Amino acid sequence: MTPLLLIAPLPPADAAGEYDWAQAGDDGIALRDQGRALLALLPSGSEVTLGIPSAALSWHRVTLPKGSMGSASKLRAVLDGLLEEHLLDDPEALHFALEPDAKAGAPVWVAACNRIWLRSIVQGLEAAGRRVVRIVPEFAPQAADGPPLLQITGEPEAPQLTVCDADGVVSLPLAGAGLALSGSLPLDTAVITTEPAVAEAAERLLERRVPIVKAPQRWLNAARTPWELAQFDLAATGRARAGKKFASVLQTLRYAPEWRAARWGVVVLLLTQVIGLNAWAWKERGALESKRQAAKTILTQTFPSVKIVIDPQLQMTREVAALQQAVGDVAATDFEPMVGALATNLPLGRTPSAVDYTNGQLRLRGLGLQPSEVSQITGAMAPRGYNVRTEGDLLLVQAETTPR
User: Which of the listed residues 268, 285, 318, 388 has the most CB atoms within 10 Å of its CB?
Assistant: First the structure.
């Protein structure tokens, strides 16, 4: 679920007062729900995106000198000096935020707002258990290669026209602006939208049909831009900034329309892999089952007396051993072949003081073998199908249950 979007109330509203809020659906784009409520009565959700109204922001264009972005404190001091003559308030009383991917030596946009007011809103939300993960502006300047945005908002008695383009953000009364629209605004290339309450006035002055976008949906669209106002003292650590940057990128990859084809491609790739793995596993299970059936068939055809097959290999070994005993032949578990195999691998001069053979296990005592000699005997006997180990001064030899 996407974070809850809250619209910061303008002063003198209290931080614990009422907030307009909006929440997107699972696609992160379409409006799912919206309303207005006191902070304590807002919908559940520990993470929020805070929207800053246009009336609380001012925009300034500056060129950062080389080396000014080495540290946050140095950059802040540079901004104070560059903007001092362009501000009505003391720079120390303002919060600044640079445009995304700002670089020294090139013109950049700087957003400014009242620092005390913004900090009080953020602290009030976090004190209520609402962690602010992003701070976004209602309107922001557009890229030079992008179309201008003309957004008509407000109430029927006082509609406002906000123009967002490469020259910044300008808001003015719609009635006054309508007199100069035809000559100063690029209506043919601009993206124009209006809120329902002022749609009639917008269409009358522009003399055209204007797409209607509700304010909550417009705020959700603003939250999908790369702008991030939580900078300097509001971005406490580099880790916090990196986390917000990662969250923003993840949000874009998950919900942005331009990444829809890539998301579907990933889904198709995963489904293909799952289907392929299941098909391969089914084929392997079939092959294994065929081998099991073949082993059962061989056992029952060779030894018709076996009616119930549980472990074909073990049962085959036992039946072969029983058959050898019945015809007087010797098996690997018999005393003679076991002693013969061991005798050829014992060190010269080593004679046991006692020999015992019981149930396929040969025990020899008194050989006095060294660990290296035991290892040598074990290695030599293993290819012939015998396990060799020691218990104190006993040397134990036993045929493997499963033949090699």
Answer: 388
DSSP H stretches of helix in 357-399: 371-381
pLDDT of residue 1: 55
Phi-psi region for residue 382, left (φ > 0), alpha (ψ -120 to 50) or beta? alpha
Q: Give every residue of the chain whose pLDDT is below 70, as ranges.
A: 1-2, 176-184, 236-258, 324-325, 327-332, 401-404
352 secondary structure, DSSP code: -
In degrees rounded to 5, what are phi and psi of residue 227?
-65, 140
Which pLDDT value is given to residue 237? 40
User: How large is the greatest C-alpha to C-alpha distance in the chain, in angstroms?
Assistant: 121
Global pTM reads: 0.59
Q: How far is CA 21 from CA 12, 13, 137, 140, 176, in A?
A: 19, 16, 15, 20, 31
d(CA 332, CA 317): 11
Virtual CA dihedral for 177, 183, 186, 191, nearest 10 degrees?
30
Fold of 4-140+227-255: Nucleotidyltransferase; domain 5 (3.30.420)
Q: Is 377 helix (H, G, I), strand (E, B) or coil?
A: helix
Contacts of 69 (CB under 8 A, 6+ apart): 75, 102, 103, 104
Q: Helix 312-326 and helix 260-302: axis angle, to 10°?
A: 20
106: number of Cβ within 10 Å: 8
Provide φ and ψ at 352, rounded to 5°. -70, 145
Domain 335-399: which topology? Gyrase A; domain 2 (3.30.1360)
pLDDT (0 to 100) of residue 182: 46
Radius of gyration of the chain (CA): 41
Q: How far apart are CA 52 and CA 229, in angstroms?
A: 9
> Per the structure block, which two tokens stand in for 41?
């009565």
> According to the model, what pLDDT value does residue 355 have?
85
Domain boundaries, the chain: 4-140+227-255, 149-214, 258-327, 335-399
Return the pLDDT at 251.
Answer: 62
Cβ–Cβ < 8 Å for 202, 153: no
Please tell me the predicted confidence (pLDDT) of residue 35: 94
Give the distance, in angstroms, between the CA of residue 372 and the centroid of all CA atoms in the same chain.
55
Query: So what's the pLDDT on residue 393?
Result: 82
Q: Quick one: tokens of 367? A: 């050989």
What is the structure's pLDDT at 7?
95
Q: What angle do CA 336, 342, 346 make, to 5 degrees?
A: 145
Distance in angstroms (rounded) separating the CA atoms of residues 63 and 164: 20
